Amino acid sequence: MHTARTRRAALVAACVASLGLSSAGHAACDTETFIQGADVDQLEEFFKDQNKQVVTFIGYSGAGYEDPSHMLGIASDLLDQFNPATTIINIGATPEGIGAVYALAKQKGFVTTGIVSTQAKAYGVELSTCLDYAFFVQDDTWGGFLADGHTLSPTSAAMVGVSQVLIGIGGGEVGRDELLAARHLGKSVRFFPADMNHQTALQKARKNGRPAPTDFGGAAAAAFRQP
Description:
This protein is α/β, with parallel strands linked by helices. The chain has helices at 2-19, 40-50, 68-79, 101-107, 118-122, 154-162, 173-184, 198-207, 218-224, and strands at residues 34-37, 53-59, 87-91, 111-117, 133-137, 165-169, 188-192.
């Protein structure tokens, strides 16, 4: 068992190296990205016209991963279960955290898409360079449930609405809300626990004057934890 685990770790490390990932987890691709604004209806029409199933990966973004190689290993195994000829890989358009999966997907021959709130544009957040299509959704929030606790924001409604399969690898409150909403709608939802980057979480807590966290599993893990 130990030998198999060591061999798999070596394969993942080689994969990370081949993607040219930096310490921040970013990868450079030579992908020409089509960028436009769109609402939920326009996005559903666009993806319907592609005549492919949409698999959406959800996870941490700026919070990062404590073990990015582990996350990429999970993602690589999952991507191998889908056919690039009939599947689109969708994420949240940015390169951080779960966005590193874009490079893996392009390497494996998938068309890649990203759906993100216009908050990203307002704050000058960079988009992944491994995107074929990026869509900005007009939204006063970054996503998740609105104040009523059950209505998704426009961005999250689009993410869930266009997807047939949603895969969570860790994730915070926005990811949790999207996965729970998708499960409620009867969509295929799979979840894999993964810690956020511990140092980043501790620094954020200090900056905001909050107690140091002791659980780094994220809000999504708490919602999907088996009793």
